[in-house]
Amino acid sequence: MRNDLLIANSEEPATDQPTPGGWQAWRPWLLLGAAAVGWWLVYSNLLPLAEWITFDLLGLSPTSEFGLALAFFLYDVPKILMLLSAMIFLITTLRTFFSAERTRQFLGGKRTGVGNVLAAALGVVTPFCSCSAVPLFIGFVQAGIPLGVTFSFLISAPMVNEVALAMLFAMFGWQVALLYMGTGLVLAIVAGLFIGRIPNIERGVEDFVWQMPVGSSTAVAGAKMSWGERFTIAWEGTREIVGKVWLYVVVGIAIGAFIHGYVPEDALAGILGADAWWSVPLAVLIGVPMYSNAAGMIPVIEALIGKGAALGTALAFMMAVVALSLPEMIILRRVLKLPLIVLFVLVVAVGIMLTGYLFNLIL
């Protein structure tokens, strides 16, 4: 990815360059402030604009199925893309201080237990996509990080990421976002500890991984970079990531809009309601073979909950999709043998089901 290349370049030894002063030093912050004001003005007017287009300009009835679905779609597409862009920009700026190499160095040599907690926490602030799973896995093994610790990171990174937390906070409040983060971290830690304690678990890793030479990079990310350079990297990363996921967002919102406008509340609540004990396992079973990301799943979850689905069941479905996506399992198959992948999926799926039941019980 271009952003990865930019960050990788930032890990090279920095040359002494004059520090910009005066106007040049403040210019990146002034531009960022102007962009933030413009972002907020647009974001705060999205709902009135969507309703005006749907009900006034097009003349659709606010009680019609198509009118409700279209208003949902016109509001959620720009809303989620704007939230996603803002969060990616923020996280990518932070990533200029914190590279994959630094992650490996930080976790290397940590004891089991402590390492699992640190790995799960780092997974929240290092939003590596599934395409990074193989190089990260190999790098962790090379750094001497136990497999259980590595799995804690691989579970936490896609599931408890900045997109999911931002969307949950915006749509359901900080209590739900915080509870989701807490349960996701516990799941990543416990699953990693369980997998790491299985005897001879190393046999589940393909032989070539152990035979690869250990890297010797000791570079530190972001040394002596100016804020202007960091913001440039963040902007490039935001453009690239949004460019790759926007279609998933639109498709997810289209599905959510259809559910919002056309699916009967009683039918959906009967299938995914808290009273149906089998709804959580069914949601996880359906979610495991699917592929999407948090940005594409949040509008679907919003529509499901709006139609009467239980919050825990809906979130279990989302967690299964983002943490156990089929493409990531295919990618991991390059470095893991099939029995270990199956074990990984089963352990995480059970943990997600317990999380779903917990949400349904307390919310």
The gist of it:
This protein is mainly alpha-helical and 363 residues long.
Structure description:
By secondary structure, this protein is an all-alpha fold. It has one domain (2-9, 32-213, 234-362). It is built from 18 helices and no strands. It starts with a helix and ends with a helix.
> Which structural class do you get from the secondary structure elements?
mainly alpha
Sheet having the most strands: none
The number of distinct helices, counting runs of at least 4 residues, comes to: 18
**Cα-atom radius of gyration:** 22 Å
| Morphology | flat
Mean pLDDT: 75
Unreliable residue runs:
1-17, 214-222
**Count of DSSP E strands?**
0
| Helix proportion | over 70%
Share of residues in strands: under 5%
Index terms:
18 helices, disordered N terminus, 363 residues, mainly alpha
Question: Mind sketching the topology for me?
Answer:
Blueprint: H1 2-10, H2 23-43, H3 46-57, H4 65-95, H5 100-107, H6 114-125, H7 133-142, H8 147-159, H9 162-172, H10 174-196, H11 207-211, H12 227-262, H13 265-272, H14 279-287, H15 294-306, H16 311-323, H17 326-332, H18 338-362
